[in-house]
Amino acid sequence: MKTLGKKIRLLRHQKGWSQEDVAKRLDISIPAFSKIETGITDINLSRLEQIATLFEMTVVQLLTFTDSEQDQKAINELETINKKLMDRETEVIDLQKKVIELFEELRHNRVTA
After folding, report:
1. Predicted TM-score (pTM) above 0.90
2. How far is Cα 57 from Cα 11, in angstroms, rounded to an integer?
3. How far apart are CA 70 and CA 76, in angstroms?
4. Could you give the number of structural domains in the chain?
5. Helices (H), strands (E): how many in the chain?
6. Most buried residue, 30, 69, 70, 87, by most Cβ within 10 Å?
């Protein structure tokens, strides 16, 4: 549930609302809302529906919502890993060429000996 709390906090920040603003709209105390955001309190379905409605989303949208900044970080990380993989593949190909050259040299030396 900590991930859901982070999503709720992100949505709250995007709206420019304080914890107090959201707590009042949900008709709960500020500490109770804080526990939702930090993942201390598990959210039941009715509270989840209430929060989704508050942010003008469906429950499914709320549960599957992702931060585009986080997505971009993941994409950048994948690109970095992919580049490293391509570099390693190039190294392997170069080593394979060297092995073939050495094998050919060894074979040539056996034929001439």
Report:
1. no
2. 11
3. 10
4. 2
5. 6, 0
6. 30
Mean pLDDT, the chain, as a whole number? Answer: 89
Whether 71 and 103 share a structural domain: yes
On the question of pLDDT at 71 being above 80, the answer is: no
Identity of residue 13: H
Does the structure show a pLDDT above 80 at 67? no
- DSSP state for residue 73 in the 8-state scheme: H
Terminal alpha carbon distance of the chain: 74
User: 1 pLDDT exceeds 60?
Assistant: no
Enclosing domain of residue 50:
2-64
Tell me if 22 sits within 8 A of 54, measured CB to CB: yes
